[in-house]
Amino acid sequence: LRIAVLASGRGSNLQVIVDAIAAGTLDARVVGVFSDRSKAGALERARDAGIPAFTLRPRDFDDRATFDNVLFSQVEAVQPDLIVCAGYMRLLSPHVVEARPGRMINIHPSLLPAFKGLHTHQQALDAGVSRHGASVHFVTAELDGGPVIAQAEVPVMEDDDAATLAARVLTREHPLLRATVEAIAARRVGWQDGHATWEDQP
Ligand code: GRF
């Protein structure tokens, strides 16, 4: 499986994919890492792993559609089978998503459909929920609204703040993303008519 990763930040989820490939549990290759932020830690991690790394600055483009067209022409140039949004913090134009049904996934730090968008840990605390977590879902034009493939839960503790909760969720995000991408590479997860399909879901 040829994987392209879109990332804006530190890149710990990218690292999980890189490490699973190195460990031999994920039959894949990361063929490019793409970022909208030149200082993203993900770019550094890509270079350390010998993966081509690309930055595109949004302010160099007139509008979102133009930025996304150029970004995705660069992404397609590395011929990915799967595009993983791993902490990619920019909205995607509907047309680039709709052109790739079932080929893009995202990891989002909440139990979707709860708490879409930003500041999910604070949203969870404000709502007073006792369970929180992370979801991997297929990307559709609706922000954080595509079909969920898999989720991982954590308890919310009484003394949590957004930082402690985020840290607890992150420890579960990593194995969740790893298992999901491994399942996609093994063709145990698919996309059919806008739904995620599973064979022997763990
Ligand atoms: C993760 O919490 C991810 O779910 C969210 O942004 C964070 C990215 O972390 N969308 P990293 O850059 O993979 O370390």
TrEMBL record:
Binding site for N(1)-(5-phospho-beta-D-ribosyl)glycinamide: G11, S12, N13
Keyword annotations from UniProtKB, A to Z: Purine biosynthesis, Transferase
Ranges where the Formyl transferase N-terminal domain occurs: 2-178
Annotated catalysed reactions: N(1)-(5-phospho-beta-D-ribosyl)glycinamide + (6R)-10-formyltetrahydrofolate = N(2)-formyl-N(1)-(5-phospho-beta-D-ribosyl)glycinamide + (6S)-5,6,7,8-tetrahydrofolate + H(+)
UniProt-listed GO biological process terms: 'de novo' IMP biosynthetic process
EC numbers on record: 2.1.2.2
GO cellular component: cytosol
Raises pKa of active site His, annotated site positions: D144
InterPro entries: Formyl_transf_N (IPR002376), Formyl_transf_N_sf (IPR036477), GART (IPR004607), GART_AS (IPR001555)
Signal peptide positions (record): none
Keyword DNA-binding: no
Role noted for this protein: Catalyzes the transfer of a formyl group from 10-formyltetrahydrofolate to 5-phospho-ribosyl-glycinamide (GAR), producing 5-phospho-ribosyl-N-formylglycinamide (FGAR) and tetrahydrofolate.
PANTHER family: PHOSPHORIBOSYLGLYCINAMIDE FORMYLTRANSFERASE (PTHR43369)
Protein name as it appears in the record: Phosphoribosylglycinamide formyltransferase
Encoding gene, per UniProt annotation: purN
